[in-house]
Design goal:
The chain is α/β, with parallel strands linked by helices. Helix content is 32%, strand content 25%. Strand 1 (2-7) and strand 2 (10-15) form a beta hairpin. The longest helix has 16 residues, at 248-263. The two termini are 30 Å apart.
């Protein structure tokens, strides 16, 4: 059987032996909208919930995702900006803020990777810095104890918009809605306290209403006062299926059932071997993002089984705090990583070491990537030069009838064991 998986901006290929017991675990295949621009335009001009449009004389701040998210801004932004122009909002009163959270900041030279050239020529664009306390405003503390500091430029605007996608998230349940502002434009302490909830019951992939981390985000969004959200639902080829716009809570209420139906994949039993792609660029732009595919696939991998993560990672680990935690003194094992993490306490950045070791401690994990082999080993990931070599090595350790799972879009898949 020929495998052909997304990898960076291209594909990666290999062959499984004839007669292999293979099952593909994917989101449902769904055609894109016939008229994606029209679909988004209809959503924007027929908003969900009780919302008011911006008015002439108001300033508007728009939170947009960074280069690690495949957000189709070329479709989502024109009807929003067109509506504002019709309302009399001046171009110079509109500010785009790239919602990086604690991801590496984007430089102005990179802005064209996420925004069309005509918008960059027309509007002001800045990048959020979660560590810049001088440009953060404290709003109080959530019911769950999260201190809330948010980008001051966003809060200073008269009208606040968020743009993004609704898709699975490994511990927030789903992305979308206010998350682009509540996390993407937050200070590091806000993000740290919220993300520490990932270890609580309910903070799981595909869970929203009972998810403490996600409901904390919802409260932060209310404290901010986000006026309008525009979210897309994408298929496995990153094409628009549907769009939702209006009150952020109403957007999530409408979008999550459709997202769950699209991304959920039922599995009868765990697999002995998982072959995993996060979904190609930008899902595998760095290990920080690609880890999500590992986590999703690990949920349906047998204890002691094998997992091959195919992630190009052209931008390395994606987080200096993660690297520093792993390199401070050589880690002998994933168990040692978990013990140190518990000893030193939760912190964003090094939480990625916890997430990877949590799964790799019970599953033999191999990495096919562009990372230097020594660097991958320093992160306790076993490198292989190509997918075929990785598969051949894994199959040598497994019985001939081993169940093999293939996830070509792992970051956008919610795998569910039917027995659960």
């Amino acid at each position: 059987m020929q495998l052909n998986l997304p990898y960076g901006n291209g594909r990666i290929q290999a062959v499984l032996p004839a007669g292999s017991n293979v099952e593909f675990v994917t989101p449902k295949h769904q055609r894109p909208a016939d008229d994606p621009a029209g679909t988004v335009r209809h959503a924007v001009y027929n908003p969900l919930g009780a919302v008011k449009p911006p008015r002439a004389g108001q300033t508007v701040a728009i939170a947009i995702n960074d280069k690690t998210r495949p957000v189709p801004h070329e479709y989502l932004l024109p009807p929003v900006l067109g509506g504002m122009r019709q309302a009399g909002v001046r171009n110079e009163d509109v500010l785009f803020i790239i919602a990086t959270g604690t991801h590496p900041r984007m430089t102005p030279a990179e802005y064209s990777a996420i925004l069309p050239a005509d918008l960059l020529e027309t509007y002001r664009v800045v990048c959020h810095d979660a560590f810049d306390e001088a440009n953060l405003t404290h709003l109080g503390v959530t019911d769950r104890g999260t201190p809330v500091t948010i980008n001051s430029d966003y809060l200073a605007a008269d009208y606040r918009i968020v743009i993004g996608n609704i898709e699975p998230h490994q511990f927030q349940g789903f992305s979308g809605g206010v998350k682009s502002a509540a996390i993407g434009l937050a200070g590091v302490e806000t993000i740290n306290r919220n993300h520490a909830m990932m270890r609580e019951d309910g903070a799981r992939l595909g869970v929203f209403d009972e998810n403490p981390a996600r409901q904390d985000v919802e409260e932060i969004g209310r404290m901010i006062g986000v006026d309008f959200a525009v979210n897309a639902l994408l298929n496995h080829d990153k094409q628009i299926i549907n769009a939702y716009a209006g009150d952020p809570a109403a957007v999530m209420l409408a979008g999550i059932p459709q997202a769950r139906a699209l991304y959920l994949a039922r599995v009868d039993a765990p697999f002995e071997l998982m072959i995993v792609s996060p979904g190609g660029h930008p899902k595998d732009i760095n290990l920080y993002q690609a880890q999500k595919g590992l986590a999703h696939a690990a949920a349906i991998t047998r204890e002691g089984g094998a997992l091959i993560l195919c992630a190009a990672c052209p931008e390395g680990s994606g987080n200096q705090g993660y690297e520093a935690f792993m390199k401070r003194s050589p880690m002998p094992s994933h168990k040692a990583v978990l013990e140190r993490f518990e000893r030193e306490g939760f912190q964003v950045g090094r939480h990625k070491a916890f997430q990877i070791s949590r799964d790799a401690a019970r599953i033999r994990t191999t990495l096919v990537s562009e990372l230097d082999d020594d660097f991958a080993r320093a992160l306790l990931l076993q490198p292989q030069p190509d997918l075929q070599t990785a598969i051949d090595a894994a199959l040598e350790t497994l019985p001939n009838d081993a169940r093999i799972g293939v996830m070509p879009a792992a970051n956008a898949t919610i795998p569910i064991l039917v027995s659960n």
